[in-house]
Amino acid sequence: MKRDLTKFANTEFDLLIIGGGIHGAALLWQAAQMQLSVGLIEMGDFSQATSANSQKIIHGGLRYLQQFDIRRIRQSILSRKQLMMWAPHLVHPLKCIMPVYGHGFKGKEAMKLGMYLYDLIGFGRNKIFDQSKYIPNGKILSVQETNNKIPYLNQDKLKGGVQWYDGFCLNTERLVLAFIKSGCKLGGLATNYVKAVKIIKTGNKITGIKADDQLNGDTLDIRARKVVNCTGAWISEIYENTDLHCGLQTRFASGINIVVKKIFPFNNAVGISNKKDKGRLYFVVPWRGKSIVGTEYFPFNGNPDDYKSNLDQCMQLIHGFNEAYPMAKLELKDVTFVHQGLLPVSNKPFLEDEEPNISKKFKIVDHENDGIKGMFSVIGVKYTTAAYVTSKILRSLYPASFIKRVNLKHQLVGGNIDSFSLYKESLINKWGKILDKETMAPLVENYGDEVETVLNIGREQDRAKSNQNDKLSFVLRGQTLFAIREEMAMKLSDVILRRTDLGTSHCPKRVLLDEISFYMAEELEWSEHSRLNEINELNNFYPDYFEYKPIDKTLG
């Protein structure tokens, strides 16, 4: 996958996608399966915004039982199953536990009925070749079982617990990238750091997009017969320079999760309510030896380019969770990373100090009614069902050909694996003399069947330079060069935050940034000044309110 803007300038696309988050990425892959001439442009890096900032849960729709929304539950369960099939190295089952208090709608009896209905609605979820993706039935836990699994719970009116399984994505950024790489492998084109700035039209029909190359300042016209806007919080920006009246609901709220020290001694997700805050539910997800705690929502009014979480928001999440589970005793110093994203809110009005009401349903708008034929916009609300949403878009655009050509059983790049657990074990054994299990396992989980390509690139480069002293140096070199040569990494932040997991749970140390940036400087011919600027830019990504921030902020 190479960044080639000449191809974009010289191609008239059947379909042009604006936005490289999960919805744009899934749409690229599906459109490429239809053998359409399809391109995707992203103003930053792929999966740079909200699609990267989640609790990594691939939801099966259990929450929709409260509204008895069987259709959405079924959609979520099937979408979860598909993601496990498409990317078996990235998406796995995860046991979830939640204590149950009292009786009534949220009591033990109601939960038992809910688990029965949920499993009934999820029939066929285990019709999948890879048995490591098996989703067991939910069950009710006794008080003793619940206390064994979640120590130091409030015992007042505790009646037991509920246990179910959901999906979990170790690296949501690489899942987005897998969709994009798969779409490009089938003939689609994608590029990062190209911003759509204006609609080009003839009469009332769209004919393309005027775009700016964010890396060198060039402007290009991209011709397209149809355009789909998947830019999330930036959805209305392109319409500001045209006479199109955007009919979309475009209010957004900020949502944050925090990465902290490991809270529970096991690898289960835990839901705990704060009884002092209207029973507000906090979810704790085990992730790479730490815990992700969330989610807290806040009103947002402003330019999404300027959005950053702040100290008050982070502290509100910490205090709220400590009230729900006092034994956690979280402090600001325990926070090593903050996931922050902008999510659409419903039309329901809310006061400035109230928590926003996050939208539950996606929106697809055909702008022919607004005066531009061939222009579509989509606002997604859920990572899990993105491919379902984009399939609906394609059915609207190409109803006859879609059913014939799209094969939802295809695996994504990196996911050509029959049994992930066996595959992982075999590679750990194969590379055991060179890399220990603790190093090899996460590499397989991130790269899937591409992992040996990554490692061999690093080994070949080290052999060429006669550098055999550090057994791990070739891993970092391989990851960096693979990201540049095969995954369009253009900046240090692309490698650290989205191609690898080197900086997504904590701030990397300066020595690591120097090593990675030296590899990039050599490959991309950066000057020393450019290399140091890249380090400084990455450093500024991390919130200033972190008490533990080991990066040296100086450029010297």
Structure, described:
This protein is α/β, with parallel strands linked by helices and 556 residues long. It folds into three domains: 5-51 and 173-249 and 360-405, 3-Layer(bba) Sandwich (FAD/NAD(P)-binding domain); 86-166 and 251-344, D-Amino Acid Oxidase, Chain A, domain 2, CATH 3.30.9.10; 420-539, Helicase, Ruva Protein, domain 3. It is 34% helix and 22% strand. The protein contains 16 helices and 17 strands. It has helices spanning 5-9, 22-33, 70-86, 108-121, 143-149, 172-185, 311-324, 386-397, 399-405, 420-430, 437-447, 451-464, 473-487, 492-499, 510-524, 528-539, and strands spanning 12-18, 38-41, 57-58, 91-101, 139-141, 158-169, 189-191, 194-202, 205-213, 219-229, 252-260, 269-274, 280-287, 290-300, 337-344, 363-366, 375-379. The strands form two sheets. Strands 3, 4, 5, 6, 11, 12, 13, 14 and 15 form a nine-stranded mixed beta sheet that branches. Strands 1, 2, 7, 8, 9, 10, 16 and 17 form an eight-stranded mixed beta sheet that branches. A hairpin with a 5-residue loop joins strand 9 and strand 10 (219-229). Helix 2 (22-33) runs parallel beside helix 6, helix 8 crosses helix 9 and helix 10 packs across helix 11 (437-447). The two termini are 34 Å apart.
